[in-house]
């Protein structure tokens, strides 16, 4: 029983990071109707930026919040420079843009910081949380920070004028423009927020997976699985999907014979295929209907 509880808590810690990545994916998807396959690389390069600041002597928390701000500005810049001109381009053109962004960010990180593994500091330490050996302080902080971030986003989208405008621009852009909402700015804001959320996820998971240019590859796949499981049209579903995927991969990897670390990632891909085959809209997604 102790092993089950420990693995569940550890899965929730990882799942909180998957939830952040899944939420970032859903935010971009709802604004431009495309999945950002470079989301992980955006988070990775933001994490490298934080590491570089700390190498220059900046304390952890100032570096943490400065990185979030820079990541937000970077997300807005990516939208304005790369994807705004592609707004009416075919799907394959967007896909080519995402692939190009992925390769550029990965190559730049390798060129500037090389491909050697670098340790990233644990801001909360690795001691047992509240004296319990079931979960460490950093794992508990991963859950806590992610949940606070997601709760703040919920408040933002439900109770602020800008949040409501973003929801309107994503759901009915033509109607939003008719009532004076500048949908282009809302899309840029969505890109910036998604990039900032990814930066938080990258900085929280970097001490666990270590820092290197390919660190987010597996995390992004788990984030995709979480977004598909919860529903690409549902931010709340993305969060629930992330937590479910985190617990699922940990429990399967621990209790199913023959399933090791190498098999857990293909299980996430199998989960994507299963959900798409059985419930394409996800557990919490809504079926989209069009009036003709």
Automatic annotation (TrEMBL):
Keywords: Amino-acid transport, Cell membrane, Membrane, Transmembrane, Transmembrane helix, Transport. GO terms for cellular component: plasma membrane. Belongs to the binding-protein-dependent transport system permease family. LivHM subfamily. It comes from Pseudooceanicola batsensis (strain ATCC BAA-863 / DSM 15984 / KCTC 12145 / HTCC2597). This is ABC transporter permease protein. GO terms for biological process: amino acid transport. Its main location: membrane. It is a multi-pass membrane protein. GO terms for molecular function: transmembrane transporter activity.
